[in-house]
Amino acid sequence: MDGVAARLLAAPLEVVGRFSDASNATLLVRMVDRDPRPLEALAADLGREPMLEDLDPADLAVHKPRDGERPLWDFPTGTLHRREVAAHAVDRALGAGLVPTTVLRDDGPFGPGSLQAFVPHDPARHYLALRPDLADDAVLRDRVALLAALDVVIDNADRKGGHVLVADGDGPVGPRLRAVDHGVTFNVDPKLRTVVWDLAGTPLPDAVRAAVAGVAAALDGGTAPSPAAGLADRLAVLLAPEEVEATRARAEALLAAGHLPEPTGPNPLPWPLV
Length: 274
What we know:
The protein contains 8 helices and 8 strands; from the N terminus they run H-E-E-H-E-H-E-E-E-H-H-E-E-H-H-H. The protein has 274 residues and is α+β, with helices and mostly antiparallel strands. The longest helix is centred in the middle third of the chain and has 17 residues.
């Protein structure tokens, strides 16, 4: 377990605010293990109400409580927060580093739910804003190919452009992509809806193929290389058995195809797009 996960699991939490545009209860919380002053004390020290810029981003996290989930006809009630954590588990197994560290907390401010490390970012820099760069940026194309493969494997039913963030401070090889909002994933029925179709039909890069092969091996009961080792056990406590089996089947189908899928069905795009 890395230090970020350990802190997310143990740090006391204080609610900072709510994301008003989220369809399910989504809260910005502050871990107060390093700075135990409550927001009221911070306000007194500042002489005004604290702004987001006054808070250390490393102390912030996004909490999605189970009891704030809107019931859906096609997903079991009270499971969306577990799917958030499962998406991070698959991301780690792929070695992708796209999904911020996400854990289960039984003692969140509003009961059990997921807790994900906050990503400082400019909301205007999302996937749709990056699309013009794909043609000339090979590194970005490889990252987007890995993102597309992740969404295929987890059967992401709602990959909006605004769910792909660029973390503040580009890395040495370009934008540091982060993927968030994975509550409607891992269905047993095909539901892939995404804006990430720009590379549809293109062959899987060798690194992406190897990563997906590791996930498939881990879920098939065989010996899986690190970082996919142990994935089956992690998913078994988060998803139904048939959902884990469907995940394995999607990974193997992607490998057999050898390329990223084309849009199919009547609704291949989410709405809204951002």
